[in-house]
Amino acid sequence: MVNIKRVYEPASPSDGRRIFVDRLWPRGVSKHDLIFDDWCKDAAPSPALRTWYGHREERFEAFSQRYRQELNAEPGHWMPILGFAQDGPITLIFAARNPATSHARVLADFLEEALDKQQDANSPVCYATQFPH
Q1: Superkingdom of this entry's organism (predicted)?
Q2: pTM higher than 0.85, yes or no?
């Protein structure tokens, strides 16, 4: 299970492993106050994509597609996070104001899809067989 949570929200035991996924440190947050297990900077959008997007909601769909292209091009940036998600619940921590249009939402959906593909690939295949009576 992949959850998302803003850095300004309190940590809770149900978060599981907390992974900070912003490239830049958030304003107004002390490095001693933010509770996280890992900082995966490279899983964040590239600086050029982040700047282009600028959290403009009208660009979210195009941003999502471009960000997914970046993720597909660099699996080494997100595979460690996928590994953590295979072991139990994780929470992606980010600073954007709107969770619904944040890169963390796109990344969480991307990771959930990757988990589903892995489960499908590992599922036993059963074939219906007709035996004569």
Answers
A1: Bacteria
A2: yes
